[in-house]
Amino acid sequence: MGTAVGIAVILLVVGLAAGYFLYPAVNPSKSSNSTQLTETGSSLLYPLVKNSWAAAYTAYNPSVVVSAASTGSGTGQSYSEQAKVNIGGSDGYVWNASSYGIVNIPVAISAQLIWYNIPGLTGHLNLNGTVLAKIYMGLITNWNDPEILAAQTSGQRSVLTNMSPSTIHVFFRSDSSGDTFLFSSLCDMSYPAWNYSYSTGALTGLKGADFAGETGNSGMVTAVEGQTGGIAYIGISYSVTGSGLGYAYVGDNLALSASGGLNASNYVNPTATNISSDANLGLTHLDYAKFGLAVSLILGGSPTNPVNLTLGAGGTDPAAGTTPYPLVNLEYMLVKTAPSGSTVTASALQATVSFLQWAISYGNYAANGSASSYLDAVHFVPLTPAVIGYDMQAIGTIQP
Q1: What is the phi-psi region of residue 264: left when phi exceeds 0, alpha when psi lies from -120 to 50, beta otherwise?
Q2: What domains, with CATH codes, occur in the chain?
Q3: Cα–Cα distance for residue pair 270/371, rounded to 1 Å
Q4: Three-state SS for 363?
Q5: Whole-angstrom Cα distance, residue 90 to residue 71?
Q6: I want to staple 378 with a disulfide (CB 3.0 to 4.6 A). Which of 101, 237, 253, 337 is the partner?
């Protein structure tokens, strides 16, 4: 394994409530017979698996070939539950995973950006969960709305005030999407009058002349790139380019209402540091004994019962020294805990375990302990040592 063996040592002695253990080295079995592993689901996770991890893992372990498909987190969840694939990719956790005979295995930490198409605008708009909820409920329909203008710089207010037409064109995921779960959770936590659920399909029923459903993150990118006045929630692994396009700084817990959201310091830039800070904060609210690794990182929140997020659980974390970016999530791989059917065979499940161990070690960290180039390419940040420790506990329940 060369110098990369150091990763297993760096990753570490992980502290858990039950004690400490040494993270084991990855030691995949080599075979002349190729094992095909299928992964489908999250379009946010897809660029990492398809463009980076799949080829890298086959180079590391030539006996295994990983194929990936971007079908949406809902499909990743249902296909893993039904053993139609070896791995289901999902931005959202399955809170009752054990009832389906699967486990949630976080493999990286990601985030979501709010993109908009407003020609002539410089800098980043400040948008909070209250304003975003009202936009997606059709209560705020123009970019020059006073609630939007109130949190912007004078130059941005001028552009928005003089924008013609000023109509907001709202794009949402029409497929079952973990990105929708993340976005709708922020809206639900921020605005008490939010009248949709928080789920992978929360917004699929939106209707109106200025609302349009798109499939996958790629569909959202194309839509906002082609529509002046457009707004869309898009996973950070997707690059959006073009004149007039920008992404927002998103309000933390101190900016969840229009009246409390005017202070520019309450809006957070999605840097790697701020994303990691939110992840660390969210994990302080994790009830592992009750929920396993079913946890949302939105504003540092966590489930208090099945998928009910704690309102205001996050916010500024003085101990961290940074302000957590509120739209952060664990990227999950959902895996059966025992062989099932013709796809999840014992040998395929063993290969899946080896791949998971590789993903949470070498797939996250370079030999010097920094973020791997695989993650950098899609703007993800590495798992924290605490998550890796929980991962190893979860992987230990898989019995090929």
Answers
A1: alpha
A2: 2-106+336-395 (3.40.190.10), 112-268 (3.40.190.10), 272-320 (no CATH)
A3: 16
A4: coil
A5: 10
A6: 237
b/e sequence 181-203, b meaning 16+ C-beta within 10 Å: bbbbbbbbbbbeebebebbbbbb
Average of per-residue pLDDT across 209-237: 95
- Report helix angle 385-395 to 346-360, nearest 10: 170
Question: Which string of DSSP letters, residue by residue, matches 170-220?
Answer: EEEE-S--HHHHHHHHHHHHH-TT--S--STTTTTT--STTEEEESHHHHH
pLDDT (tens digit per residue) in 275-305: 888 777 777 767 777 767 766 677 665 544 3
CA angle 242, 141, 191 (to 5 degrees): 105
Asked if 274 contacts 161 with a C-beta cutoff of 8 angstroms, the reply is no
Closest C-alpha to 336, from 36, 105, 26, 28: 105
Asked whether 216 and 72 are in contact (CB, 8 A), the reply is: yes
The enclosing H or E element of 346 equals helix 346-360
Question: For 59-98, how does the pLDDT look when each residue is reduced to its tens digit (9 = 90+)?
Answer: 999 999 999 999 988 899 999 999 999 999 998 888 888 8
Most confident by average pLDDT, 7-11, 39-43, 258-262, 270-274: 39-43
- pLDDT greater at residue 2 or residue 233: 233
Measuring CA to CA, how many Å separate 147 from each of 68, 107, 114, 400?
42, 38, 17, 55
* DSSP β-ladder status, 249-251 and 267-268: antiparallel
Determine the straight-line distance between the first and last CA of the chain, rounded to whole angstroms.
24
CB atoms within 10 A of CB 341: 10
Q: Among all chains, which residue has been given the structure tokens 């969210």? A: 282
Total residues belonging to the chain: 400
The span from the CA of 121 to the CA of 124, in Å, is 8
pLDDT score, position 321: 53
Task: Confirm if 202 and 220 have CB atoms less than 8 A apart.
Answer: no
